[in-house]
Amino acid sequence: MEIHLIIALCVLVLIAYLFDISSRKTKIPTVIFLLIMGWAINQVTLRSGIRIPDLTLLLPLFGTLGLILIVLEGGLELEINKSKIAFIKKPILSALISLFALYIIIGCTFHYWLGINLNISFLNAIPFCVISSAIAIPSAANFSKKNKEFVIYETSMSDIFGVILFNFMIANEIINASSFFVFFYNLIIILIISLIASIALAFFIKKIDHNVKFIPITIMVVLIYALSKIYHLPALMFILIFGIFLNNLDELNRIDFIKKLEPEKLNLEVQRFSKLVTEITFLVRTIFFLLLGYTIQTNEVLNTETLPVALIIVSIIYLFRIIHLLIIKENLMPLLFMVPRGLITVVLFISIPVNKQTEIINQSLLIQVILLTLLVMMFGLLFNKKTTKNEF
Predict the structure, then answer these.
(1) Where is the Cation/H+ exchanger transmembrane domain (predicted)?
(2) Which domains does the chain have, with CATH numbers?
């Protein structure tokens, strides 16, 4: 039995790899194949009578690991210098404005249209407001450098801002001045921790002379994230800062203690570390979306009670996206389509306390919104194929 499971897992990962390669030409997001494949496996096991243990418990684990690795991978790709400061501001502000605008619009929609308690409405709205970097970043692999960097910054910061807002809402039943004081205090703490930890981990990368060193470094990153979460600190901020710090040592070479790290030599190790992170991220992301597809029930996708709500949410997302991109003077194509919901949406949704959950805002609604945004992105990229090629 174990051998059959190993064979099945290996075959699934290899198929996912082929999907990932082909998606660059087909413009069809790999995640759609993975969800369909996971769902198909579920149907086969049900009809054949094969007993498989409940895999839904693994979703939060692989979701959290995937989120950490995706943000780290994005940070390791970003370059920051004086010439890019003006550009960087735009996607970061875009992520912040989009999150809060949709938070208010969707939260009010839940409250006034569905008649849900105001606090519960806004808490449940957050997962639908966050762009999934797990889907958007890989889908932007063939974009022009400018568009790709915009997607990486915007989606990574959307994840971070979304998690911060979600944790803030969970921790504060009543929002007052004290709540904001604690929030900014925690933000300063995580910035200090990020700086110290980034320097320490960079030092370890340089000094450790052993055949195995990047896996322990990765585990330490995850450990720092987990410890930060225990103390309700915005832990994703550390992940992004650490990735950006490692990838921009040359820009910090004027600082004395950075010179001691010998950035020229360390850059080679960072490149190796970045490749390892990319490959681990692919594996974790693949397993997560296969698991998510496996847990999807056909009746959830076809639920007619939640479908009108899902269509309203998706319409709000794209109408606001059009208005927002026009205001910030960015090209509609292909950035209009790069607002999928996915991994982070699921992670936040399953983290909502039981007493804050509602009947109408359920897993069916979640799955429908995710699938609809994926389909819009897929068809958008397919029809925008010629335009995208001209930007490369």
Answers:
(1) 12-380
(2) 2-391 (1.20.1530.20)
